[in-house]
Write a structure and sequence with these properties.
This protein has nine helices and 21 strands. It has 388 residues and is of the alpha+beta class. It has two domains: 260 residues, Aminopeptidase; 116 residues, Alpha-Beta Plaits. A hairpin with a 2-residue loop joins strand 2 and strand 3. Helix 1 runs antiparallel to helix 2 and helix 7 crosses helix 9.
Amino acid sequence: MPTKTNTLDPIALAAELIRCPSVTPEEGGALDALETCLRGLGFTCTRLPFSEEGTPDVDNLYARLGTEAPHFCFAGHTDVVPVGDADAWSVDPFGAEIKDGILFGRGATDMKGAIAAFAAAVSRVTAKGSFKGSISFLITGDEEGPALNGTIKVLEWLADKGEVIDDCLVGEPTNPQALGDMIKIGRRGSTNGWITAKGAQGHVAYPHLADNPVPRLVAMLDRLAGDSLDEGTEHFQPSNLEITQITVDNEATNVIPAEARARFNIRFNDLHTPAALEARVRTHLDAVTKEKGGAYDLKMIASGDAFLTAPGRLSTLISDAVAKAIGRTPELSTTGGTSDARFIKNYTRVVEFGLVSQSMHKVDEHARVDDIIALTDIYETVLTGYFS
């Protein structure tokens, strides 16, 4: 393996990436900039554009340094959410301005700052000499979007080529308040549901000639909301079902509607599967229709299963690196939303650790310069320990 003497400045690279307007699904130049840096470090880079009918085309990057095991992968995304109201920002959302030691810009914390820190960490490791093993980057442009033409398809491409990843670190912003708060060793699953309660339209003065679906829908939602799914587990908080929308398309004041619809989301831990949850929901809806009559349609679509990477060498390496860099011991957690780790866990061990999450997706998204530098130190220590 070639030895590199050049090292990257994580702040300069983070700023360069932020200046690329890579709002999903646009590449915006971010993957180009990262690829240039990685090629300079000796990585073999492959661009992987994928498309699927009815979804946006997406560009992705896979880069690998070395051919031997063990194989450590850094995964993440260069795409970002829209800026929203640009006039509400105090800075140019893609200007990468630094004020009072804080780097501003869309993607600063989610997650261009972490990508820059990882690339800089790799440059430090390679500058020290060769190592036995491989390092790769799996970077998508589709994490903030449908997530259909990104990480999933890159992983399938790698499997078809026979490439095996031994361990993976995702650089999502995992820390609620300060760097070193939290390592994500798993995530709850997520499934969405749509209920349509069916009835028969009629005049409100003649209810016996109609069939009002609204009371049935209310009763269904009451049963679902009252179902305590579980009390949590050793590593997971309790599962929860949240009703997110109730819709009745009826502009008239004197008409009983024919349909009433609702939408809900379930965030679930490893006590449940999407299939078992759908069966549980149907049991509640069937009980209501048995009591009150009528009919319903139910559609449920899972966007991710619950998973856990049991505490072990990988999480310990990161925890020890955090303690060495900033003197803190992070909590091992499974809280929060979903990430592309839900796809990676089907192929290898995966944990997540990145910057502070407070400003992600917000106006004036930002990351402390000192945090990006400290994160680079942490990633360098993880890599050094991993290959020692």
